[in-house]
Amino acid sequence: MCSVHNAVEFEKRGRPAAVVITSAFRNALEVQFRGKGMPGHPCIELPHPVYYLSREELSAITKQHAAEVVRQLTA
Q: What angle do CA 69, 21, 35 make, to 5 degrees?
């Protein structure tokens, strides 16, 4: 997962990072963060799959999680 690698690199440089995944990738994310020495790094988890959602449905899900993204980036 490139998002995990990028998040780790940002965090090492003192920059907060928010990782957004779908629920199908939760276990892989945890394993990769643990392997990179950052177990328990938070993520924003969306329902899986999102590919088939309409633009309106995806927009609604995005709005539901926007505050969480901001919180992780400003914590």
A: 100
